[in-house]
Amino acid sequence: MRIDSLEKLERIKETHKVEDFNDPTVKKILVCGGTGCLANDSEKLIEFLNHVIKARKCSEKVKVVKTGCFGFCEQGPIVKIEPDHVFYVKVVPKDARTIIDEHILQGNIVQRLLYKEPINNRKIEKQEDMPFYKKQMRLALRNCGLINPEEIYEYIKNDGYSALGKVITQMSQDTIIDIITKSGLRGRGGGGFPTGRKWEITKKQPGKTKFIICNADEGDPGAFMDRSILEGDPHSVIEAMAIGGYTIGANKGIVYIRAEYPMAISRLNTALFQARELGLLGQNILGTTFNFDIELKLGAGAFVCGEETALINSCEGKRGEPNYKPPYPAEEGYWAYPTCVNNVETLANIPLIILKGSSWFSSIGTEKSKGTKVFALAGKINNVGLVEVPMGTTLREIICDIGGGIQDGHLFKAVQTGGPSGGVITEKDLDTPIDYDNLLGVGSMMGSGGMIVLDDRDNMVNVAKFYLEFTMDESCGRCTPCRIGTKRMYELLVKITKRKASMADMDALKQLAYMVKNSSLCGLGQTAPNPVLSTMKYFWNEYMELIKDVDHPQGEGKYKAKNRERIEV
Amino acid sequence: MTSTREISAIKSDHDLPEESFKELEKYIDSIKTTKGALIEILHKAQEIFGYLPRDVQLFVARKLGIPGAEVFGVVSFYSYFTMKPMGKHTISVCMGTACFVRGSDRIIKKMKDTLGIESNEITEDGLFSLKDVRCVGACGLAPVILVDDKVYGRVKEEDIEEIINNYREK
């Protein structure tokens, strides 16, 4: 069946029955199908649940739905019962019988499966009452953990494809650009470039062939938000790409995705297939003259391919080496046609902005950074998981309230944001409201949103070495400062951690850091020294403890003086 | 169409199965345009052969009419492509930051000691190969290892022997 008009889409939204999505008399057991929970047997749990349902002959009254990531990975597998809003954690397959017999059939909440607050041991029934969710605002993740990502009708029921319908039947390209620009949405891939402006530049380019690319090459270690969105809500990205395609005048979209994400790839493929079946992709979408389709291109494991020019080279089947900019991809991109590259999370926000308006979106966040940001919170923290907060939330709120503090009662030491391109933030800056500019101000950056919490057991020189090893490995080798500079920096860090370095080595490390930063071709090299510079700035003592300098055993002398100053990131 | 004789000329004295070359050739012939499709083709080739030895690379190069060096350039650039055969089971240790701060460097060391191989090597009996991978994206379970597609979370050093033995018996 094709949906060939906006009216038909609206009608389906009202009338289509899908897994009894809105039927209050039918209980739904939502089981997390994110990577973390699947690794903890959630698939088996679903099997057991269905088995028990069959045995109790209650399949009319209850449905099991595999959803995308709930975000609360630490407590997985997560099960939520709707419409009761009851949230169970750490559910194992053999709990299936208890859940059906006790909760579904008897209406009794299974106390032992409820989340227990670590501090006061209070048990919490509902998701909205849990500290982990209380301060969150889920926009990009709005459907993750709520709908079945493999069922397009559930997405449609949740206002899916309405934004696409609205723009292609009622709006001009300039109106859309105006809305996105006024909303203040900035690229969530890390750079923070205004999305509306990027669309405008691409739209203005002459020529009929243009492309829109979704950057789903999440190479940043410790970041998994793009993956979760693609796994939990692939249609929102597809819909946004179609909106973007319409706006900039592109008929073709490409999702460049890591081959290491097989589940995201398979769910995207399912979603693309379903969208094509219903005519939401392809020729004459919703009965208009707009044609648009999307193809997948698999990456092959290279961090540098997250950089847009490198990504485009990789899409063309070449080595993923970056090009000089300008020309920017918006002017000359995929096969030299104007190409707009947007990150997954950026795109996931688009349908909401169209439906709810630019002023609604721009009322959230800080003056210069609007909306929310998804962070992958990990490391030595109690509640590891995916969190989405309004811009302007402080790091302390994220770490202490949402994250539930440091594991095993240890002390907070620092938080690394922005992955290998970012830096560490210490206790004194924890009350900084998070936005693009503030994070740069404290010597780190937003990056893709990885947030790794470190405690008093972590050695910061080791952490810097870890990141440098990563960037050294991932340097594409095209420009000398990055290829050789990172290698030499890594060697110096090894020397330091082996306690064989002198103050002269520290000085050389610092000089190299600035050299690599200032002379590399692309963002990978330009930001590679950041973890070193920022750990030097805040944890100079830890470096000093490892230095053996016969002339300056305590790190005093000219090198110390030189190094102490001018450390800025 | 490359003739069977050409295929055997390329595959020289190695024992790569001829059917696999045919399968790959069929795939290449089936795609609309080979322009920009090199990475896709290499993905497929690795799926068929399990790895990308020199002969396979040359085969792809001739099929596409591009220099062998260009194919090698791409194969060697991306970490997902491997030029060495893999063991029956691939053990991947996640080296993402979250896993690193929760001790994945100790896990991989223990793994290397237990298997007696380094990263990207294969055990003598051909049963296991070891890889260190970048972020699996299951940071909640850190440190994480994967054996083939199965994820093991919150791995401790002392669990490793048992995990490996599970696969030895089968």
UniProtKB/TrEMBL annotation, chain A:
Q: Where is the NADH-ubiquinone oxidoreductase 51kDa subunit iron-sulphur binding domain?
A: 461-506
Pfam families from the UniProt entry:
2Fe-2S_thioredx, Complex1_51K, NADH_4Fe-4S
Q: Which UniProt keywords apply?
A: 4Fe-4S, Iron, Iron-sulfur, Metal-binding
One Gene Ontology term of the molecular function aspect = NADH dehydrogenase (ubiquinone) activity
Q: Which domain of life is it from?
A: Bacteria
Stored PROSITE patterns: COMPLEX1_51K_2
What family is it from? Belongs to the complex I 51 kDa subunit family.
Name used for this protein in its record: NAD(P)-dependent iron-only hydrogenase diaphorase component flavoprotein
UniProtKB/TrEMBL annotation, chain B:
The note on cofactor binding and number reads: Binds 1 [2Fe-2S] cluster.
> What Pfam family is a match, any one?
2Fe-2S_thioredx
GO MF terms held by the record? 2 iron, 2 sulfur cluster binding; metal ion binding; oxidoreductase activity
Q: Which cofactor does it need?
A: [2Fe-2S] cluster
Residues noted as binding [2Fe-2S] cluster in the record, renumbered to the chain = 94, 99, 135, 139
Record keywords, A-Z: 2Fe-2S, Iron, Iron-sulfur, Metal-binding
Q: Which family does it belong to?
A: Belongs to the complex I 24 kDa subunit family.
The name of this protein is: NADH-quinone oxidoreductase subunit E/NADP-reducing hydrogenase subunit HndA
Q: Specify the species.
A: Alkalibaculum bacchi
Upper taxonomic lineage: Bacteria, Bacillati, Bacillota, Clostridia, Eubacteriales
